[in-house]
């Protein structure tokens, strides 16, 4: 059996626009009243990112069942004679629904078209699945304040799109696709990278939205907010396997079922099962219900009959009827049924009641295991930024699933960091290949591409930008200041690939494409000595994260030693610079406190608290500087705290308390980031504390009180043992 391939999973809010599977849709109708008028033509074309797949189109004329007004015919050119003998809308909606699948629907004033389709489906008693959508008119108004007209003709002119077949459904759909493709660089320039962000952009065109609502194109449900946040009290809930509550049988079944006739021999059935690598076959009967033959049945008959078992007819030993469940059954309910009936195999029925597939416990184990491996596989096979963007967009869902499954936030941060390093490595491989193909040759010297900060520590959150650097072997004597230099080209392309994939450029400029972060090994050590001998707060703004360096990609084993040597030697330089350590320690302790008068938590106007800058980073920075002072070489903040306390002869209980606070703060920030991404908001370091449980609020207040004492803890641990 082969896994069902009826379409991609539905796109989430974090899906990147550059890799988004979409369908651009348009309709022609008898008029503009979505409640009374009828559809007479539907046109659609598929897109992937900004690529228009012109060979994948849907183009049908529909008999509306009512006369077409002459005024309408003058617009689209279709008359009663043109629609005579054509199918009615009920006959084409299933095909359109299959054509759309789980793709996002895009259109110009798309809510008019969706309202027409919704009402037609209701009118004819046909099932219609509401898709996620983007409206190029709404987005254009939002992104270009003062836009004179968001008409399709005006937008096409703006983006240099020539409309062929204006006021035909497919012609307008193709023109809209061209406009959407032309908008993407502008969207990217405005920081709109994901589906959720694009949806929010469209909703911000409030005047036009209200106009569309006023004519009944769509209505926002009463009493529901624009953004539905996921719960962030995950840590206080009972751990569950969220996979079982998200997936349905039809999502994981093997389809179509492999079958044999009831008159086939056991040998033939066993051979088929072995060839297909499956544990059961469905037995067909002409005059009765189907049955099932499993590998256990085969073994039982072999044990009973020995060499003669192969001639046994499967119809005489099968189990009948096949126990089944509907395809839209959630997995947790299906597993309950299987446990109750002691089943290893469960038939899956489609909406017509026909046997559409088979679900097995083996399938569940494979799907559950592979769900955490797919991201890695996608990184390894990515050849373009948009393929890496798919991986980046999957991280919020992966993080949410891991937290829901009971994994602590520090371990989740390690997974996110590992994926970030893998993406950086793949970007390096892609850039190397592109330079070679362009005639610039292979790397002219050994090198290591380093990640810094949270990625180097293995403590990444979901809002991380790029922090990377390049260390090059001292044998290299090229001109690193030249834009034509191989390493200059390489670094620029790596950073560009990552930015396009959704790992944004570092606002502080800590990236290998910038000359200060691209050096030979000896030059890096000279720079470390300069930092140590001439420390200044302005000069050290981004220096501290350098000491969290870890290699993401190395050109050879020698390059691995380059990275390891740089980390050890630069840390040795820092350890023997009291002034540098003092300044780093003061910087860690000087971060503002989130506690105000009488222990009240400081909130911004939106009711949020900046837990990253006001709580998490003081712990991280403090742990880093005491680790440098005492020569401990742990990467993670909790381990740095524990090792430094041990070396300094300080209380392990205090170190454990701070490590626990670090994990707690990471959980609060991560779960808020997951909720924000789902709502189409840019994730940051602030948390809406009004959504916390009382238990977490009490714990947060206690944590902030301890963070306020970091100054004393750091000062204590900086002392010579």
From TrEMBL:
BP GO terms, sorted: DNA replication proofreading
Domain called CBS: residue spans: 253-308, 318-375
Cellular-component GO terms for this entry: cytosol
One Pfam family, short name: DUF294
A GO term, aspect molecular function: [protein-PII] uridylyltransferase activity
EC number: 2.7.7.7
TM stretches of this protein: none
Keywords tagged on the record: CBS domain
Catalytic activity: DNA(n) + a 2'-deoxyribonucleoside 5'-triphosphate = DNA(n+1) + diphosphate
Biological function: DNA polymerase III is a complex, multichain enzyme responsible for most of the replicative synthesis in bacteria. The epsilon subunit contain the editing function and is a proofreading 3'-5' exonuclease.
Subunit record text: DNA polymerase III contains a core (composed of alpha, epsilon and theta chains) that associates with a tau subunit. This core dimerizes to form the POLIII' complex. PolIII' associates with the gamma complex (composed of gamma, delta, delta', psi and chi chains) and with the beta chain to form the complete DNA polymerase III complex.
NCBIfam families to which the protein is assigned, alphabetical: dnaq (TIGR00573)
Protein name: DNA-directed DNA polymerase
């Amino acid at each position: 059996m082969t896994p069902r391939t009826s379409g991609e999973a539905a796109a989430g809010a974090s899906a990147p626009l550059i890799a988004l599977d979409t369908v651009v849709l348009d309709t022609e109708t008898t008029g503009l009243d979505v409640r009374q008028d009828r559809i007479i033509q539907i046109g659609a074309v598929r897109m992937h990112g900004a690529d228009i797949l012109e060979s994948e189109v849907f183009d049908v004329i529909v008999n509306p069942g009512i006369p077409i007004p002459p005024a309408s015919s003058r617009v689209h050119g279709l008359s009663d004679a043109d629609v005579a003998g054509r199918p009615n809308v009920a006959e084409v909606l299933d095909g359109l629904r299959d054509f759309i699948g789980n793709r996002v629907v895009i259109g110009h004033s798309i809510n008019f078209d969706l309202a027409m389709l919704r009402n037609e489906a209701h009118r004819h008693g046909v099932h219609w699945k509401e898709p996620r959508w983007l409206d190029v008119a709404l987005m254009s108004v939002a992104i270009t304040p003062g836009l004179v007209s968001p008409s399709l003709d005006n937008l096409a002119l703006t983006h240099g799109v020539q409309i062929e077949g204006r006021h035909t459904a497919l012609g307008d759909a193709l023109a809209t696709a061209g406009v959407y493709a032309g908008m993407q660089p502008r969207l990217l320039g405005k920081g709109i990278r994901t589906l959720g962000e694009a949806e929010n952009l469209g909703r911000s065109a409030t005047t036009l939205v209200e106009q569309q609502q006023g004519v009944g194109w769509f209505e926002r449900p009463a009493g529901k907010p624009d953004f539905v946040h996921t719960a962030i009290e995950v840590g206080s809930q009972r751990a569950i396997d969220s996979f079982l509550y998200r997936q349905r049988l039809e999502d994981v079944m093997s389809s179509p079922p492999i079958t044999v006739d009831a008159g086939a021999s056991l040998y033939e059935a066993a051979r088929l099962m072995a060839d297909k690598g499956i544990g059961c076959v469905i037995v067909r009967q002409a005059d009765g219900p189907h049955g099932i033959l499993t590998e256990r049945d085969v073994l039982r008959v072999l044990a009973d009959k020995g060499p003669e078992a192969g001639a046994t007819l499967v119809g005489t030993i099968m189990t009948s009827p096949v126990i089944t469940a509907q395809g839209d059954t959630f997995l947790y309910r299906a597993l309950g049924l299987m446990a109750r009936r002691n089943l290893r195999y469960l038939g899956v029925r489609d909406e017509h009641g026909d046997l559409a597939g088979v679900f097995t416990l083996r399938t569940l184990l494979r799907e559950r295991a592979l769900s955490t491996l797919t991201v890695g596989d996608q990184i390894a096979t990515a050849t373009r930024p948009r393929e890496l963007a798919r991986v980046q967009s999957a991280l919020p869902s992966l993080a949410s699933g891991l937290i829901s499954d009971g994994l602590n936030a520090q371990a989740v941060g390690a997974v996110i960091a590992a994926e970030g390093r893998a993406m950086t490595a793949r970007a390096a491989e892609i850039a190397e290949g592109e330079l070679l193909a362009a005639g610039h040759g292979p790397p002219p010297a050994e090198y290591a591409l380093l990640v810094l900060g949270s990625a180097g520590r293995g403590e990444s959150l979901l809002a991380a930008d790029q922090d990377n650097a390049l260390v090059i072997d001292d044998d290299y004597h090229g001109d690193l200041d030249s834009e034509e230099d191989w390493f200059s080209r390489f670094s620029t392309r790596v950073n560009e690939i990552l930015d396009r994939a959704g790992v944004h450029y570092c606002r502080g400029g800590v990236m290998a494409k910038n000359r200060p972060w691209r050096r030979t090994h000896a030059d890096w050590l000279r720079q470390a000595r300069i930092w140590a001998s001439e420390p200044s707060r302005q000069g050290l703004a981004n220096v501290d994260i350098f000491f969290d360096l870890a290699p993401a990609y190395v050109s050879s084993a020698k390059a691995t030693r380059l990275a390891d040597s740089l980390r050890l030697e630069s840390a040795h330089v820092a350890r023997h610079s009291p002034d540098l350590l003092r300044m780093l320690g003061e910087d860690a302790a000087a971060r503002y406190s989130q506690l105000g008068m009488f222990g009240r938590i400081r909130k911004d106007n939106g009711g949020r608290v900046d837990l990253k800058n006001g709580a998490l980073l003081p712990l991280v920075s403090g742990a880093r500087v005491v680790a440098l002072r005492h020569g401990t070489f742990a990467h993670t903040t909790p381990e740095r705290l524990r090792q430094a306390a041990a070396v300094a002869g300080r209380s392990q209980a205090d170190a454990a308390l701070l490590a626990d606070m670090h994990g707690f703060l990471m959980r609060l920030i991560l779960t808020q980031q997951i909720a924000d991404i789902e709502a189409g908001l840019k994730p940051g370091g602030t948390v809406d504390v009004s959504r916390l449980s009382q238990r977490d609020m009490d714990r947060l207040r206690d944590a902030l009180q301890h963070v306020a004492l970091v100054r004393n803890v750091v000062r204590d641990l900086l002392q010579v043992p």
